[in-house]
Amino acid sequence: MNEQKLCGTLTSINNIINENYTIYCLIHTDGLIGFIKVTINQIGEKNLYLYDKIKLHYGKCTYFYILEKFQKRGLGIKIFNFMLKDNDISAFCLCYDNPSYKLQNFLKKYFSPCVLIKQPNHFVIFSNYFKNVSIKKVYERISN
């Protein structure tokens, strides 16, 4: 995970359990290929204040990583699409937590045309985010 020059563990198994994250792993016979750490719906949501100044609960993609030697094989989009389908959500409806340059390029490649907007809290959203996330739908998720 040297994309962001990390030198230690960011997430422990206790953190995942305590925060109710969902982890999607892509496994090969040689071991782990990649993973996505995501919070969607009522699972580990966090209040985010985005440019529209409405405080709502948003789904977020916290980590997305494919081992370097397995990149450029179409595996990243397979696990990403599986995560989207499993949660019945669009990539445009997620917030991305401080995405790397590679993740931003991945999003632009597979979900174009898109413009990514950086938020003051280091999250990134698609420019059409608020067109895709209806206020009514978000409030329904909060109240359930």
UniProtKB/TrEMBL annotation:
InterPro entries: Acyl_CoA_acyltransferase, Atat, GNAT_ATAT. Keywords: Acyltransferase, Transferase. PROSITE patterns: GNAT_ATAT. It holds the Pfam family Acetyltransf_16. GO terms for molecular function: tubulin N-acetyltransferase activity. Residues 1-130 form the N-acetyltransferase domain. GO terms for cellular component: microtubule. It comes from the Eukaryota. Gene3D superfamilies: 3.40.630.30. PANTHER family: ALPHA-TUBULIN N-ACETYLTRANSFERASE 1. This is Alpha-tubulin N-acetyltransferase. It comes from Plasmodium falciparum (isolate Palo Alto / Uganda).
